[in-house]
Amino acid sequence: MYRTHHCGELNTKHIGTAVTLSGWVQKNRDKGSVIWIDLRDRYGITQLIFDEARTSETLMPLAKTLGREFVIQATGTVIERSSKNPNISTGDIEILVTDLKCLNQSKTPPFTIEDDTDGGDTLRMQYRYLDIRRNPIKNNLIFRHRIAQLVRNYLSEQHFIEVETPVLIKSTPEGARDFVVPSRMNPGQFYALPQSPQTFKQLLMVGGMDRYFQIVKCFRDEDLRADRQPEFTQIDCEMAFVEQEDILETFEGLTRHVIATVTGNDPGVFPRMTYDDAMKRFGNDKPDIRFGMAFGELNAVTQQKDFQVFNQSELVVGIAVPKANELTRKDIDQLTDWVKRPQIGASGMVYVRCLEDGSFKSSVDKFYDQDDFKAWAKITGASAGDLILVLSGDTQKVRPQMSALRMEMAERLGLRDPKVFAPLWVVDFPLLEWDEASERYHAMHHPFTAPKPEHMALLHTNPSAVNANAYDLVLNGNEIGGGSIRIHDKTTQSQMFDLLGFTPEEAKSQFGFLMNAFEFGAPPHGGIAFGLDRLVAILGGQETIREFIAFPKNNTGRDIMIDAPSAIDQNQLNELYLNLKTIE
Amino acid sequence: MYRTHHCGELNTKHIGTAVTLSGWVQKNRDKGSVIWIDLRDRYGITQLIFDEARTSETLMPLAKTLGREFVIQATGTVIERSSKNPNISTGDIEILVTDLKCLNQSKTPPFTIEDDTDGGDTLRMQYRYLDIRRNPIKNNLIFRHRIAQLVRNYLSEQHFIEVETPVLIKSTPEGARDFVVPSRMNPGQFYALPQSPQTFKQLLMVGGMDRYFQIVKCFRDEDLRADRQPEFTQIDCEMAFVEQEDILETFEGLTRHVIATVTGNDPGVFPRMTYDDAMKRFGNDKPDIRFGMAFGELNAVTQQKDFQVFNQSELVVGIAVPKANELTRKDIDQLTDWVKRPQIGASGMVYVRCLEDGSFKSSVDKFYDQDDFKAWAKITGASAGDLILVLSGDTQKVRPQMSALRMEMAERLGLRDPKVFAPLWVVDFPLLEWDEASERYHAMHHPFTAPKPEHMALLHTNPSAVNANAYDLVLNGNEIGGGSIRIHDKTTQSQMFDLLGFTPEEAKSQFGFLMNAFEFGAPPHGGIAFGLDRLVAILGGQETIREFIAFPKNNTGRDIMIDAPSAIDQNQLNELYLNLKTIE
User: Fold this and answer.
1) What is the β-pairing status of strands A272-274 and A423-427?
2) Which residue of A has its CA nearest to B210?
C-alpha cells in the first residue's frame, strides 16, 4: 500500500490526520528554509511542506533534489495552510512531511505537464504517456469511459445484449479498403479486419437475438483525411421486428439520455428533416441547426433581369447573415476571396446589405431594384441590419459552396457554441447514387439497406428515384450515427447486388452466407451505428477525435510512440508464405 | 411496430387483451379443425390457436402452410388454455388468432432448433445463426453479456477507467506468434495484432491513469489446441502505486462479486497457495480444490525396503481416493492401463486397499508390511474404505501424471460439481524457467514481471531461484486470471531482457518506447488479466469456451460459416506490395 489517500481528497476535515500520499512532483518551490512541493496524481494536487523548524534534517536535502515528474511517496500530517488556494479542492490544507521516499526519478519531460502545454502535436504523440498526465487528455479519456458506461447501461436496461462479433473475418471489396491478415495455418489465404460488424449483427437478428449492441473497434484502410483514424470505435446496434419509427425512438432515447446526463439539460424531441430538405435548405446532409441562415432559393426572383451570371445558373441561392451589415466593404471583399479559394470553388459572390431604414444596397444594384431585393430578403428571411450573401451555379456545386459559407459565417459570428447541442434526424436518404467514374450505382448507405416498400417497383424502372428507410443522426453539423432498415429476403438482396454491379458469382462468394441465412426465416430488422470517437469529442465540446483517443495514429497511419508499423522478420514472412515486392 | 408484446410475457392477467406477437414457428400441430402453433422469440414461447368454430375461414389454410422456423406476425386475443403447460411462463394462456401474416418463409433447418439438437458440431458452426436460436447458445451469450456488465459496473464503481488501447500495434517476436497486418501506406511494413495490451496498460500507468481496465479482444497465431481460439477476450486490468496485496484484494473483490451475483452464494475469502505448494500437493499450478486427494510424498516411508521401482524413483507419491476400496480388481487394472496410456505416461501404478477392519491389502504386499501401509495412509490421509494410489518416477514427470489421475478419479467420483465454485490464489511463481530447447531462460509470466525485491541479488547468481510477485487466480482447476507486479525501472527491465536473450539492440527496437517511458517517472504498478471466455464458461457450469462465443472458429482457425480466411484479389496484394510464395 503506497498511500492512504489520493491527492484530490484531503480537506480541513482531515486536519491532524496522518496520511501517506504518492504521486508526481508537479512543482518544487525551494525557498531555502521552506520547501513546497505540489504533488499530483490522477485525482488532484496536494501541497507538501518541508521546513527547517519542523522537518527532520535528513528530509530537507532529499526534498531539494526532487525534480519535475519525480515519483515520490510522502507521509505526514494534514495541517491547515496559511495561504489558501481556492482553485483546488485541497487548497485549504497541506501535508507537513515526516517521511519521504523517492520511488522513481524522471528526466526533464520534453514538454510541460500543464493544461496549456508547450508541446507540439508530434512531440505529444511521441510521448503520449506524458501527454496523458495532462488534465485535458486525462479528463477526455475519463469522459469517454463515462459515455461508454452510460450507453452500455442504458441499452442493457432496454434488454439489448452486447455480443462480441469476430475481428478476423472475410475480405469484401465493396465499401472502403480492408486491412487484411495473412493466415499461417491456411497458406495463401487472408482474414480481413471488419469495417463494421454489419453482416454479423444481421446474422444475430436471423439468430433471434432480437436486440444487439456492441461497442467495437472497426478498421478502414483509407487514405487518411484530417482527423480520421485507421481504427475507430462504433456503438453498433441492431433490432428485429422493427420499423424505422421504432429505431428512431429507441436511439433518440439513448442519445437524449446521454446528452441530458452530460449536460444536465434534456434536449427534448429531436427534429426530423428529409434528405431532400436538408440538401435544399442547408446544402448538406448533416446540417448544423444550432443557428439559422437556411438557404433561400432565388431563381424565381433573380432570373427575370439582365444579370447573365444568375440567368445562366441552375441554382441561385442566398442566406441572410444576421447583423452582418456591419461588415466593411473590405471584409466582404475578403469573404469573396474566401469563397473563391479552390477548397470552396465559387466563381464569385453577390451581396445585399439590408440597411436599418429598410432599403437595400447591393453589388448588383444596376441589375435589380429595391423591390427585387425585398423579395430576396423575404425568401432568405433577412431583416434590417442583415447581410444577404448569394452564390450561383450548378446545383451540385453551389450547395456545398453555400454550406461552407454558412458554416464560416456561423463560426465568425460565434454561433457554433460547443455547449449547445442540437440533434437532428435526417431521413429518407436515396437508396443509390450514380458514380460517374465507375459508371454504376453505389449504395448510399450500404448494400444491405432496404428500399422503401412503396418504391420497390421503381427499383427496375428508375433506381435513382428509390428512397431507403435510411437515417442519420446529426449533432451540431456532424453525423454521429447512421443506419437503416435492412433487406431480409434473398430476392431483394440479390437484386440489390445486381444493381451494384456484382455478378451472381461474386455476390455468392462474398455474401453467400448472408443470403443463405435469409432463406431460414430472417425476421424484419434494422439498426444504427454511432461513431463513438466523434460522439465523445462533440459531447466534450471539441471536434478533434484524436484528443479523445488514448493512443491515436497520425495522418499516415503511424503510431509514432511505438514506431508501428515496422518491418518484420524474414522468418515471419516465410511462415506466412509471403514475399515483399521490391518497391521502386 | 411488429408486436405489442413478446412471446415470454403473457399470462392470465392479460386474458381478454388484444395482442400482436411476432416470432418463429417452433411447432405446428394441425389437428384438422384445430391448429396449434408454438410461436418462439428470444423471450419465450406462446401458443397460438386457430379453430374452425372461432377463426375466420381465410386464416385456417394459411396457418396450415406455416412450417418450422417460418417468421410470422399474429394478432389475436389472449384466452385461457384448456390444457395448461406448467413448464413455461405463458403456459396458462393461448392466443386466439384473428389476423395472421407470414413475414418470411424458411427452408427446413439442417438441424432441430431444440435444447438437445440433432446437429453435429460442424453443421452447427456452419449455420451458427440457427444454432444461436437454440436456448442453450442464446442463454450463454446473454449470460456472457451479464458477466461483462457486472465486471464493468463493479470496476467503474471502484474508479477504474476503461481505456481502449490500439489493435494495430507492433510485432514483437517474444511470446506467442503475432498475427500481422501489412500496411499499404507504409510499404513493406506491418502492424501486429495485440497478444494483450500489456505494454499499453503499463504506459497508461506511467501516464498517471492509476486504475485501468478493458474488456478487449486479443490475438495469438498459435497452432490451436482443443478449445483455443485465435481471437479471445481478456478482462485486462492495471493499477499504479500498488503492491501484490492490493491487487489480490481488489480482484478477489471483483471475482467474489461476480460469483456471488451469479450463484447467490458468497464464496468467502479465497485461499492462497504458493506455486511450490501447489506443485507439491497437487502436481499442478492450477489445482482444483473442490475436492481433496492432496498428494502425500512417500519417499521416506517407501524407500527403506527392497522394492527397487520405488528405491530408484526421485519421487514416490500417493493419493487417497475416498471410498474407492469398492473398486474391483478389474477396475483397478483398467485404471493402471489408463495411467500407462501415452497421454499420461506412467510406467505403472501401486495400490493399497484400506479395509474396513483397519488392515491393508496392496499390490506390493510382498515388499511392505501393515505398519508401512499405516504410514502411507497417514501421509495420504486415507481412512478405512479408501484406496491409496501410488505413482513413482522423476518428479517433473510423476507430478503431472498423478495430477491427471487425481482429476480422473474426481471425475469418476462426481466430485467436480460444476455448481460448486472453489477459487484459489496461487502465488510466488518463479520469475524464469529454463528452456532446454533454446538453452535460455523464458519468462514464466512475461518479460515485464518484477522479481521479488528480496530476490533481486539472485538475479545475477542464480536466476532459477528468483521468485516473482506473480499470481494466478484459479477456479475449479482452471486458470481464469494471472498477473504480476511489473518492473518500473529501466535498469531492471534491461537486465531482464538480457537474461531472456535479447541483445540491447533488439530490446531497444522492440521495447525502446517502454524503457524510455520508464525514465520519465514511472510509478510502481501491477495488474492482472482474466480470460473472459473461460471465466464465463466455468461460471456457466461448462468448460467449452466455444459454446460461449457467438461466432467461434474451428481448430484450424477457420470460420466455416463465412468461409474465412480466403483468397484475396491480386489487386489487393499489389497495393500491399506483397507476393504469395508458391506453396510446394
Assistant:
1) parallel
2) A42
